[in-house]
Design brief:
By secondary structure, the chain is an alpha/beta fold. It has 13 helices and 9 strands. The longest helix has 17 residues.
Length: 303
């Protein structure tokens, strides 16, 4: 959501490497813009780092640092603050991090050959509309994109993070497009879409092409990445619904497709960006594959 283009991509993977921990321990000052971060290992590093100075810059008052670092709380508009404090050219202090990020990106590209939500997250920049915007859902969706993709610098990215819930995400994405009038790609999970299914009615009259990708892994599969009890995980955490979104798209007279490969997905997207009718694209993917691939990538990067 920072729209920086992630100059050191795949941070949630390479931060698990011991070399990264040793380098980042040398940081003298940390400047945090905005509120909560997304990646697990980024949050862990934020909690454990002990720089000489820790600044938090955000327009909202109140504490934003759950690790309670000693430092400065600067209440200011982030863009205005950056204009008054432009970055100065300097010798890079941690050049190996760039190599580590590039090497991690190479491992991700090499390993993600199978069709699934991790591959789509990694290749998401190829699906973005020109002069458009991206809306990312919560749960596993935003974490996979944050960890595996490198979005274009300055490309508008929106999300309804809040308490990281799944409330009203279709409604929010529709509202974002009404406000901007830009071609919009929204990527949500199946439970998030089901939770706000009636909001598909808002997509019947769109000001520009709109594509809703529903990653249907049959439940809240982020809980497959957490230490939840195996026997109770499916019933009480993942809650599979075993549904198809084709009837929902038909009910609201929206275009629908369910591609089964990256090439087919790209063809569908090309048609969708030319259509004046919103398109629902359902990606039926193996239930736990996204979480398993991510864990496999973590081990590969650390090795």
């Amino acid at each position: 959501l920072s729209q920086t283009g992630q100059p050191l991509p795949c941070a949630d993977l390479w931060l698990a490497h011991p070399r990264a921990a040793a380098l980042l321990a040398q940081a003298q000052i940390v400047v945090q813009f905005g509120g909560s971060l997304t990646g697990k290992r980024v949050l862990q590093w934020q909690s454990e780092c002990r720089p000489q100075e820790y600044w938090v810059v955000d327009p909202l008052p109140g504490r934003l640092d759950p690790a309670h670092h000693r430092g400065r709380r600067i209440v200011a508009d982030i863009s205005a603050w950056l204009e008054q404090h432009p970055a100065r050219p300097a010798m890079p202090w941690a050049e190996p991090l760039e190599g580590l990020a590039a090497q991690t990106q190479h491992i991700v590209a090499r390993e993600l050959t199978e069709w699934g939500e991790a591959q789509v997250a990694h290749r998401l920049p190829e699906l973005l509309p020109a002069d458009g915007q991206l809306f990312l859902g919560n749960s596993l969706t935003v974490r996979l994109v944050d960890a595996l993709a490198q979005l274009p610098a300055g490309y508008p990215v929106y999300g309804n993070r809040g308490a990281s819930g799944i409330d009203g995400l279709v409604s929010t994405a529709a509202g974002v497009q009404r406000a901007t009038g830009k071609p919009t790609l929204a990527v949500l999970g199946d439970l998030s879409t089901l939770y706000d299914l009636n909001a598909l009615a808002l997509l019947r009259d769109v000001p520009a092409p709109f594509v809703l990708i529903v990653v249907n892994n049959n439940g809240g599969q982020i809980f497959s990445m957490l230490p939840t009890p195996a026997r109770e995980r499916e019933k009480f955490y993942c809650m599979p619904q075993n549904v198809s979104f084709a009837p929902a798209a038909a009910m609201f007279s929206l275009n629908y497709d369910a591609p089964e490969s990256l090439a087919a997905l790209k063809e569908t997207m090309t048609r969708a960006w030319r259509s004046s009718v919103a398109t629902v694209i359902e990606l039926r993917v193996p239930e736990t594959a996204g979480a398993q691939v991510f864990q496999r990538l973590l081990k590969a990067v650390c090795a």
